């Protein structure tokens, strides 16, 4: 559904993570359905066109075909459904198919994204017809649009499973769109074999403690899990209950100055380590070959001592572990959708679905009117991961919505389950 009504941020052409908590057993399992680089990608894939043409991909790396990863969200969701689903797979698509055929009104948020990206969307005939008026202006909020091609695509996946997407005509259309060289764009090297060979991964959850809470989230290649765990580990060294918000309500209450300060400073330190050391552990080892090094209580206590209660540290420096690390450029991101589902048994499924760029950096494939996510994001050593919302909060591991953040309490929250899903520290201070 989100791929239909907010195609700038969600969709079947992207990737995602999912954290599954079983209320009966207390078990936590995570699923990795993030995009991967094509098999033909080399360490210079995002750096230059090829060894003979050592110029940057055109028009730039993010707008080129090189930024398109092999999508993984459908394969991952199908795996999760096979293990834990209750409703028939086919029925899951019925509401979105019906709305795509019947039409929906463009939301103000989508309208703003279309306006911002109108020039880029005009370069693609499918996007132009779907989202722009005949004079090239963005269709305004409230305009009713239909998407029968998307309905047809979802109908095929509903009937035949993810193979309808990863094999056959749809896969061929995706590869063709990614390889498009119109306007001088550098093409992707994705093949139909990359799509048919894609597999999602099951990974052990990353679990740590915060005071009397057990906190479980997504491990690498998600960078947010370690960052949030490190933030909480640093905050554990301060009397956060003294800085709790006032006038607590469903929105979290009114944050205190000290609460915001200590959370922000802890995040600076955690993000500095995340940016330097956390990549895809299938290719790049963490310090000590384990998240335990970055999350060691003694190490985090030392990081906490860098925080002053009176002044900000400014740009935080990462800790030193005497290992080489690739430099990474910090850029704002705007592309993750967060979905949380809680069933009648209190079993939780939390899935951040990554759409790495807005429409201006998306590619449309003929026959589906849906976007392909960019950039690649199960990184090799040269690719930096991480997604930030416009507020600067890492949303790859955004929290299950809860009414009371545990880090402001020295005692267990009686309204909380024994296992907590990740909370964003900045959300708590909001």
Automatic annotation (TrEMBL):
Residues 365-430 are annotated as: Disordered. Gene3D superfamilies: 1.10.246.130. Residues 365-382 have a biased composition (Low complexity). Residues 386-397 have a biased composition (Polar residues). InterPro entries: GGT_bact, GGT_lsub, Ntn_hydrolases_N. It holds the Pfam family G_glu_transpept. Belongs to the gamma-glutamyltransferase family. This is Gamma-glutamyltranspeptidase family protein. The lineage of its organism: Bacteria, Bacillati, Actinomycetota, Actinomycetes, Mycobacteriales.
């Amino acid at each position: 559904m989100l791929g239909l009504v907010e195609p700038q941020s969600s969709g079947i052409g992207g990737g995602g993570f999912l954290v599954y908590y079983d209320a009966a057993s207390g078990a936590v399992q995570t699923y990795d359905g993030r995009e991967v680089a094509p098999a033909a990608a080399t360490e210079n894939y995002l750096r230059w066109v090829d060894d003979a043409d050592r110029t940057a991909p055109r028009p730039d790396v993010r707008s080129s075909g090189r930024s398109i990863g092999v999508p993984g969200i459908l394969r991952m969701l199908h795996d999760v459904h096979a293990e834990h689903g209750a409703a028939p797979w086919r029925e899951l698509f019925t509401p979105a198919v019906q709305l795509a055929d019947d039409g929906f009104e463009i939301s103000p948020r989508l309208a703003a994204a279309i306006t911002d990206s109108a020039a880029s969307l005009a370069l693609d005939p499918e996007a132009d017809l779907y989202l722009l008026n005949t004079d090239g202006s963005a269709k305004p909020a409230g305009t009713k649009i239909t998407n029968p091609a998307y309905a047809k695509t979802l109908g095929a996946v509903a009937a035949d499973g993810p193979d309808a997407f990863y094999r056959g005509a749809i896969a061929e259309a995706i590869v063709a769109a990614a390889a498009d060289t119109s306007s001088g764009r550098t093409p992707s090297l994705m093949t139909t074999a990359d799509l048919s060979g894609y597999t999602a991964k099951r990974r052990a959850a990353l679990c740590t403690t915060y005071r009397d809470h057990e906190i479980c989230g997504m491990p690498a290649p998600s960078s947010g899990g370690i960052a949030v765990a490190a933030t909480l580990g640093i905050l554990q060294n301060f009397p956060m209950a003294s800085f709790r918000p006032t006038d607590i309500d469903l929105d979290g209450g009114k944050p205190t100055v000290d609460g915001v300060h200590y959370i922000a400073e802890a995040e600076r330190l955690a993000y500095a380590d995340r940016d330097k050391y956390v990549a895809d552990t299938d290719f790049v080892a963490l310090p000590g070959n384990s998240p335990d090094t970055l999350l060691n209580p003694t190490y985090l206590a030392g990081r906490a001592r860098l925080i002053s209660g009176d002044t900000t540290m400014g740009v935080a420096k990462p800790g030193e572990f005497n290992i080489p690390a690739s430099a990474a450029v910090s850029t704002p991101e705007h592309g993750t959708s967060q979905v949380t589902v809680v069933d009648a048994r209190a079993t939780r499924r939390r899935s951040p679905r990554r759409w790495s760029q807005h429409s201006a950096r998306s590619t449309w494939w003929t026959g589906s009117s849906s976007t392909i996510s960019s950039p690649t994001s199960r990184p090799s050593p040269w690719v930096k991961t991480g997604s930030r919302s416009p507020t600067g909060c890492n949303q790859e591991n955004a929290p299950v919505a809860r009414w009371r953040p545990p880090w402001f309490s020295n005692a267990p929250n009686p309204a909380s389950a024994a296992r907590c899903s990740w909370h964003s520290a900045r959300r708590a201070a909001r």
